[in-house]
Amino acid sequence: MQISKHLLSPSREERAGTHVLYLAKHALDSSPERRAKYGYHVVYHALLLEALRGLGLRVTPAADHQVLFGRLKFNFLYAIHSHAIFDGHELLAPAIAGYRGVPCLGASATTRAISEDKVLAKHVAASLGIDVAKHRVIRPSDLQSKNFGLAGSWIIKPRGGIASDAVMKVDNEADWRNALAAIQDPRHEGREFIAEEFVPGLNVTVPVVEGFPAGSFVAFEETGRPGDNVLTNEGKRGLDKTYNSGPYEGPGAQKIMEATARMAAEISPFDYARFDYRYDPGTDRAVFIELNIACNMAPASAIYRAAALHGIKYEELVGHVLTYSLRRQRKRENT
């Protein structure tokens, strides 16, 4: 599919008139020491800042959400949410931007809740007839029971957030005791967790970038740690060698692409996102896991690598996403 004719870039007027606040945890520091501590996300934040500036835009980097509460010195917000330390972080920046009338990359705060909350995302998918992983919220009362557990294999993860942190697999009573103890660790500050049915097989993710025809980008397979193929925060950050990815057009891919098209149409506009599934080749079962709006768009990400298959360069993809977002929101303001 030839999609280059759909590629957008900021006009001279847009470059001159747009002041971007780039809010990301590592926006102000990409030192080797920080890279050693936090991994590839530091590189990503630096590369994205460089790409935004390379477009000829005026860009102010910031690393603290507090900047959103001060005097407005920008007219477009590009906020990376996945590394904030509080639940609901994905909603804060777009909610404030909406309140103050500033265009913000990605979906509105209300739609962002679907990306922030893994339970809500599954409800949206199920309402469209898409199979979802069976799940249950782990409530405070469950933590008080030493005998709490569910039969079978489960993935325990925070209900909110997209960074794949604190992911645990449980298969027996001992695993449940360890998982419940980990959930109560003070560093989680009372976060809610969910138990999600472990579906054996492949991790398949579908990148979607609005402004291109539906189905423009192929699905990608992501490989995780040996044994259960679970994706971990450490693997995604490049702190170990368990993570890898590549284009996937094997069994189940078409089914997953069709499910993604339905869900993307339901929640649009969102500028760009990634839709994650587990696929069991033995049963031909594809289950929706979660949705990540305005997710990782680093050069090693599935989002960019899918675009690169069409000959799109990194700065071009960043320019397209920003331009599409800017124009759809300013068009809405003028109607």
CATH superfamily of the largest domain: ATP-grasp fold, B domain
For the sheet with most strands, the description reads: 5 strands, antiparallel
Largest sheet strand order? 10-9-8-11-12
Distance between the termini: 33 Å
> Helices and strands: which structural class?
alpha+beta
By CATH, the architecture of the largest domain is named: 2-Layer Sandwich
Task: List how many beta strands DSSP finds.
Answer: 12
Mean pLDDT figure: 90
Strand content: 15-25%
Radius of gyration: 20 Å
Low-confidence stretches: none
CATH topology of the largest domain: D-amino Acid Aminotransferase, Chain A, domain 1
Order of helices and strands: HEHHEEHHHEHEEHEEEHEHEEHH
The CATH C-level name of the largest domain is: Alpha Beta
The level of helicity is 25-40%
Provide the fold topology.
Layout: H1 12-17, E1 19-23, H2 32-38, H3 40-54, E2 58-62, E3 76-79, H4 89-100, H5 109-116, H6 118-127, E4 135-138, H7 140-143, E5 154-158, E6 168-170, H8 173-183, E7 193-197, E8 202-209, E9 219-223, H9 233-236, E10 244-248, H10 253-267, E11 272-280, E12 285-293, H11 302-308, H12 314-333
Parallel strand pairs: 1-2, 1-3
Antiparallel strand pairs: 4-7, 5-6, 5-7, 8-9, 8-11, 9-10, 11-12
Give an overview of the whole structure.
By secondary structure, this protein is an alpha+beta fold. It folds into three domains: 111 residues, Rossmann fold (3-Layer(aba) Sandwich), CATH 3.40.50.20; 124 residues, ATP-grasp fold, B domain (D-amino Acid Aminotransferase, Chain A, domain 1, 2-Layer Sandwich); 63 residues, Dna Ligase, domain 1. Helix content is 36%, strand content 20%. The protein contains twelve helices and twelve strands. A five-stranded antiparallel beta sheet has the order 10-9-8-11-12. Strand 11 and strand 12 form a beta hairpin. Helix 4 packs antiparallel against helix 5 and helix 5 packs across helix 6. The protein is globular.
